[in-house]
Write a structure and sequence with these properties.
It is found in: Membrane. InterPro entries: ArAE_2_N (IPR018823), Brefeldin_A-sensitivity_4 (IPR023244), IVT-Associated (IPR052430), Memb_transporter_dom (IPR049453). It is a multi-pass membrane protein. Pfam families: ArAE_2_N, FUSC_2. The chain is mostly helical and 1196 residues long. The protein folds into 4 domains: 180 residues, no CATH class; 300 residues, no CATH class; 134 residues, no CATH class; 257 residues, Methane Monooxygenase Hydroxylase, Chain G, domain 1 (Up-down Bundle), CATH 1.20.58. Helix content is 64%, strand content 1%. The chain has a two-stranded antiparallel sheet with strand order 1-2.
Length: 1196
């Protein structure tokens, strides 16, 4: 029996996970709602609640106590704001309607008004209809602006909608009592149970979540450094006592840390609604929490370095990419691991010593903060990766804490260790060979790890300073005693910034909150990250205010005041500008000109506002139209009484809850609402029957509580918030409709049927309106979000690359540009979060073009790739902000054309993919290759360093000669280098500095680290381009001169081994990947600028491959260039596949192929031509013929 019980327990916890905190929240919510239901059953209490006592359990569910204290106070403030606005608006509307009825509105009922004063009664209902329409539009507008406002506008809708259904002969006092007493009593009860029963203060939770975040950061640092240093060693050789963690675990820790950092920021902002009583104010943690964001960026850099090292180690066994079986050529695989390992072997002891002291300092910081904020010391994890981890002092309770932590000694020891580490690093690299210090992949990888590791250490030093300050405050106050030491900290609206947070919401842009998470009150928890919830709409100002290239095309208001003038010719340019300005000042504008100016400016502002608020207008009209269609009988005199008797308010209530900004969201919400209403109403019927028709209210209450508890579990612990909340409300509403005496005497069965009718009618109307009136599909929103991220990445590249015109810069990345990059990056991450939600909603939309499963997998990969690109950009920008870039600040006049080519290629690719996603059009035939441009940049930097820091190259005139086919940019830059060298010789400057001294500059190491990040960005962009081909296709040529690449590497293979090349043997695969590709630097330096991205062998691939998928068959150039292909049902190889059909093409029912594996080219083969024996090379590319001809002439 015990074994069966354990099996049942494991099964239950696996399908219905629950912990202590969630159980406490469910208990609080169930008790609160049950007490509210009991109050409605007591006649004396019910008489005090007014004419709408059923609002009490409803508001107890909406403002539930299952939040933290600060979250409950926040929800109460929003609810009260909506109630006050809604009640004022409803009373004003009813006042005007009553004035239309005349002076006898108090004495005549609505039936009498209908019989005796029909025109007046009709006019009064028309006024209510107008007020209802404006309220509904405002409700939809605010929900579209931000889901944060749902908690405010939904109570507003409840008050106005239900008040307009009340009899018009009710005085203002009756209406006010009906919509204030139950609401305010429900809010007070929620706050009471939140404080009395299992209170969960936000300040206490802030300390816990801060220590948990630091544990994750600490473990990530230890695991990444251990992995990088010891991955190629066996356990006996490693300096660490713990074997390295798997790369998979390291990569999974990146999003976990990001979510925890977002949680810390949200909880800190949430604490402004709370009054805390403690030794230290919660705001003292703000500087430390702000450090978590750069911490996560540097940890991403460490983990990315580990990933590159793993790729370098496994290059022989894992040469291909893992994204949809696409071939990805990793630059790091061409590095020399033996050379890299020789230097790493020397640096291992220094890295280990610094890492050990850093880890101990992080543990000390956690202990200090845990003690200051009364967090359980066992929550702070101690380091476990070192061999002597047992010797590290561990603190398990307050009795173990010393009187003096010697924080200054720890800080000084960490600083001295960092200085010695820099010294040893310089010595070791100075003793290494000169080749290692040149710009190569080995140096890029090592620089990436070292720079991120050093910056992590600097952040730990800063964190020690802040933790010392917090510990000093705690110790000083604690010495005064319990009564005098503790203080009441009131942080609500203490400055304008907190007021803005209260108005706009306390959630960061990178992880926007949706309505489900706002209703639950437990945002940014781990269980909410993968839920198929609702998407928060992108802020309307994001695309206009963040992407500067869109703002440049708009005219400002000041431009309207300037009279357009033509430039003066050269002969008149000598006229003094002062005289001209004085002449302009003397001109007086007439009244008509000023009026024209203001009228034009007003039109421009209106136009901008309408364009910016297009989505808000659309959803506002959708909500207004849907609710008017669902509730129009309440404004028609003949049907108003019938509508009230059928509980028409329920119809509007369900309809507005089903309305979502997208078709998929509305469909999913309607399904969940319908399920919740049916289950909740059925449980209400069961409770009423168990109570023997109100004869046993005690049993009825118990049965109701038993049904509400699982509803609150699904409400607070699962993503099915919509079904749970309306299910719980339906239990109380249906039961009270039959139990409370009213003018509408319904039986329980009739109330159940009317409730089900309301959800079918209201939800159906909302779905139909969403499908017909301005439909917004989740698939289209998904494409727009991804396109927005592509445009944001392009803008980030432009901001990151300074001095593209060759100007001299002292600061490679200004503070203003970095802040702008941070803002754009946050908006792009928020767009990716919304894209995740839209991807889930797209599966739930009705679709006529086949299944969405295959496309969903592609979008999942696209979102993953975009996140990786943003991680690399953020890390590179942070390093450049800290250290600058030696290449930009010293050699920009030489290398700027090559830097410009790299950025231009990346921006061109991202903009092409952005337009492809927006317009669903295939990619163009030719796109520039950023990989080739990046190689040329690195080669140019290497050559510049050699010519400027190796004096023998300049003195002896050993500047190598280039081929005549070299591009003009290369010749121009070589002339620039020679000119600079001549100027130095003419000025008799000192000889060039040693190469080692320059290479060891931190700015140069920063450039190395950013270069390896850029190489990864380029690789991910190429993968993103391949994924885009699968979705939208590509315009390529099937055969002919334009179907093949033309750059020299490809042609060199054909020229050196032409016979094997024509027969299709893959020469590239036979080469050693670790061979140094820089040996032929000068020959490949003049590569053509027009090389295409598709020359790299990156071709669109199908989603489905056979399990026995092998390498594509060799390409026979002679056959491809001729007209014989296809004569015997021969197919082109995969590398020459031209276009995959666009999004949503219908599956081929005859062939059984995937819709994404079909191809359509610009020209079809002629099946009448049958000459398979032709193997002539008459139609080979002209580039090959030219190379062969030159070789023959040379041999002659």
């Amino acid at each position: 029996m015990d074994a069966r019980a354990k099996i049942l327990q494991r099964w239950w916890l696996r399908h219905f996970p629950i912990d202590r905190v969630l159980a406490q929240k469910i208990t609080k919510c169930t008790v609160n709602s049950t007490v509210a239901f009991i109050f409605c059953l007591i006649p004396k209490v019910r008489d005090r609640l007014g004419s709408q006592p059923a609002m009490l359990p409803l508001i107890s569910v909406m403002v539930h106590p299952g939040r933290r204290v600060s979250g409950t106070i926040q929800a109460i403030i929003f609810c009260l704001t909506g109630l006050v606005l809604g009640l004022s608006y409803a009373l004003f509307g009813r006042f005007l309607a009553q004035r239309c009825l005349g002076h006898n509105w108090k004495h005549l009922t609505e039936d009498e008004q209908y019989a005796d004063h029909f025109p007046r009664y009709e006019s009064a209902l028309a006024i209510l209809a107008v007020f209802e329409t404006f309220m509904l539009f405002f409700h939809g507008w605010m929900r579209s602006v931000s889901h944060h406002y749902f908690a405010m506008v939904f109570p507003l809708f409840l008050v106005v909608h239900f008040a307009f259904l009340d009899p018009l002969d009710d005085p203002i006092s009756t209406t006010t009592k009906a919509y204030t007493v139950p609401f305010y009593l429900g809010i007070a009860m929620s706050l009471f149970w939140n404080l009395v029963l299992f209170p969960e203060f936000g300040s206490t939770y802030l300390g816990n979540v801060t220590i948990d975040t630091m544990n994750l950061i600490h473990n990530a640092i230890d695991d990444s450094v251990n992995f990088f240093v010891s991955i190629d060693l066996i356990q006996n050789q490693s300096l660490y006592g713990k074997s390295p963690e798997s790369l998979s675990k390291l990569l999974k820790s990146k999003p976990t840390i990001h979510n925890k950092v977002s949680t810390c920021s949200a909880v800190l902002h949430e604490c402004i609604y709370e009054i805390s009583y403690s030794y230290v104010s919660p705001t003292q943690l703000e500087p430390i929490i702000k450090m978590f964001k750069p911490f996560s960026m540097y940890i991403n850099g460490l983990i990315n370095a580990c990933q590159l090292e793993f790729t370098l180690l496994s290059r022989d066994t894992n040469r291909e990419g893992d994204i949809l079986l696409m071939k990805t050529d990793k630059e790091i695989t061409y590095a020399n691991f033996e050379r890299f390992d020789r230097v790493l072997r020397k640096l291992r002891p220094s890295i280990y010593n610094l890492h050990k002291i850093l880890s101990e300092s992080v543990y000390l910081t956690k202990i200090l903060l845990a003690h200051a904020y009364d967090v359980n010391l066992n929550r702070a994890e101690s380091p476990e990766v070192f061999r002597d981890s047992d010797e590290i002092m561990k603190y398990r309770n307050k009795k173990d804490l010393p009187t003096d932590f010697r924080i200054d000694e720890h800080k000084e020891g960490l600083q001295n260790t960092l200085l010695s580490f820099d010294k040893e690093l310089k010595e070791e690299l100075l003793n290494s060979e000169i080749d290692f210090l040149r710009p190569k992949d080995e140096m890029f990888l090592l620089s990436s790890f070292l720079m991120n590791f050093k910056e992590t250490t600097n952040l730990v030093i800063s964190m020690l300073d802040h933790s010392k300050e917090v510990h000093t405050i705690r110790s000083t106050r604690e010495a005064k005693g319990w009564l005098r030491g503790k203080s009441v900290w009131f942080t609500f609206l203490h400055n304008f910034q907190s007021f803005k947070i209260w108005i706009k919401g306390s959630y960061p842009k990178a992880t926007p909150v949706n309505e489900n998470e706002g209703l639950k009150g437990s945002v940014f928890t781990e269980e909410n990250q993968n839920t198929a919830g609702l998407a928060a709409r992108r802020p309307s100002v994001a695309e206009k205010d963040l992407l500067s290239q869109q703002l440049d095309g708009e005219k400002s208001m000041q431009d309207l005041e300037r009279t357009p003038t033509l430039p003066l010719p050269a002969t008149l340019s000598s006229v003094p500008r002062s005289a001209e300005s004085n002449l302009i000042k003397t001109e007086k504008k007439t009244f008509s000109e000023r009026l024209t100016y203001y009228f034009t400016a007003c039109l421009i502002r209106i136009n901008r506002f309408c364009k910016r608020s297009k989505a808000h207008f659309r959803f506002g009209f959708q909500v207004a139209i849907a609710l008017i269609l669902a509730s129009f009988p309440m404004f028609i005199p003949k049907t108003r009484d019938w509508y009230i008797k059928y509980h028409g308010a329920w119809v509007g209530f369900v309809c507005i809850l089903c309305m979502e900004p997208s078709v998929g969201g509305t469909f999913w919400s309607f399904f969940l609402r319908m399920l919740g209403v049916v289950i909740g109403s059925s449980w209400a019927y069961l409770s009423y029957a168990a109570g023997h028709h109100q004869s046993d209210p005690y049993l009825e209450t118990v049965i109701t509580a038993i049904g509400a508890a699982p509803g609150f579990y699904y409400f607070l612990g699962t993503p099915y918030v919509r079904a749970a909340i309306i299910g719980i409300i339906s239990i109380y509403i249906v039961l009270l409709a039959a139990a409370i005496p009213s003018s509408i005497s319904d039986s329980i069965l009739t109330a159940w049927a009317k409730r089900c009718f309301a959800v079918g009618y209201g939800g159906g109307v909302s779905l139909i309106v969403q499908l017909i009136m301005f439909p917004s599909k989740a698939r289209d929103e998904l494409n727009q979000e991804i396109a927005f991220v592509c445009g944001s990445i392009s803008e980030l590249q432009l901001l990151y690359a300074s001095g593209l015109e060759g100007e001299s810069l002292r600061v490679s990345l200004s503070e203003q540009k970095y802040k702008r990059m941070t803002k754009i990056s946050q908006s792009a991450r928020g767009a990716l979060s919304r894209a995740d939600a839209y991807k889930s909603l797209a599966r739930q939309e009705p679709r006529l073009k086949g299944e969405y499963t295959e496309l969903g997998k592609v979008f999942t990969q696209i979102i993953f790739v975009l996140r990786q690109i943003l991680d690399r950009i953020d890390n590179a920008a942070l390093l450049r902000r800290q250290y600058g870039s030696a290449i930009i600040e010293e050699f920009n006049s030489v290398v700027y054309p090559y830097r410009r080519q790299v950025i231009a290629s990346l921006c061109c690719l991202m903009r092409a993919m952005q337009e492809a996603f927006l317009n669903k059009t295939p990619l163009p035939q030719f796109l520039p290759s950023p990989r080739i441009a990046q190689r040329r940049l690195i080669n140019m930097v290497r050559r510049t360093l050699r010519e400027n820091y190796n004096g023998e190259f300049v003195k002896n005139g050993l500047i190598p000669k280039f081929n005549e086919t070299e591009d003009n940019d290369s010749n121009d830059e070589r002339e620039v280098i020679i000119d600079v060298t001549k100027k130095k010789e003419n000025k008799h400057t000192q000889p060039a500095a040693p190469m080692h001294e320059f290479a060891l500059k931190e700015r140069f190491l920063s450039w190395n680290a950013s270069t390896v990040a850029f190489e990864e960005i380029i690789e991910y962009v190429e993968e993103l381009c391949n994924l885009t081909k699968i979705l939208v296709g590509i315009n390529e040529f099937k055969y002919g001169f334009l179907s093949r690449p033309l750059y020299e590497d490809w042609a060199a293979e054909a020229a050196t081994g032409f016979e094997d090349f024509v027969k299709g043997k893959n020469i590239r695969k036979q080469r050693d990947p670790s061979s140094n590709r820089e040996n032929n630097t000068l020959e490949s330096f003049g590569s053509s600028n027009g090389s295409s991205l598709f020359d790299e062998g990156q071709d669109p691939v199908a989603l489905h491959h056979d399990e026995g998928h092998q390498e594509n068959p060799p390409v026979n150039l002679a056959r491809i260039a001729s007209h014989q292909i296809g004569s015997n049902n021969d197919e082109l190889p995969t590398s020459f596949r031209n276009r995959a059909f666009s999004i949503g093409f219908i599956n081929d029912q005859l062939g059984g192929l995937s819709n994404l594996s079909k191809k359509k080219t610009l020209g079809d083969t002629d099946s009448d031509i049958e000459n398979d024996e032709d193997t002539s090379d008459e139609e080979l590319p002209l580039a090959l013929k030219k190379i062969l001809t030159n070789n023959k002439k040379a041999n002659i």
